[in-house]
Amino acid sequence: MTEPRRPSRRDQDEEPGLGPTRLRDLTVIAVIVAVTAFVLVRYNYGSLPPMPLLAGIVLYVLAALEVLIAFIVRARVASRDVGRARGQLHPITAARVLALAKASAILGAIAVGVWTGLLIFLATRHDLAAADHDLPGSIVGVVGGVVLVAAALWLEYCCRAPDDPTDDPVGGHPGPA
Length: 177
Known about the structure:
The protein has helices at residues 9-13, 23-44, 57-78, 91-123, 129-158. By secondary structure, it is mainly alpha-helical. The chain is elongated.
């Protein structure tokens, strides 16, 4: 007869539901997409149209909007102005903002992967004039993806309630909003 398995501390700490976005997961997404993009671009670069310099500018616009939203949410959460009363941040709105942050982090990781795959291909093709023309646009895209990921992770952090536990395993106490 076997003894029943006692739940480990790790099993007890993990709760089902929505947790913070892990940088490790975003990195895996970016690497897989970068390899895929590199292979696709390598075999199809000749049929792609020229890339404008500001092709990745939309990533910066999304990041700027998320930073603006983060400032608003952070101020409301810090002043405990979350609730259903008029003028307060409604809990459903906070959940939607959190969903936006998570989706934007994944979008940013995908964008980093696509632009990185393209950038690696272009950086290794010094014999093509078109590659030299497209290189600055791919750099703008990679940086835009990284900026979007950073903005999304910060927005997600700003959505935390003041009494949410921190990720610090040693003596974690509630952190600021």
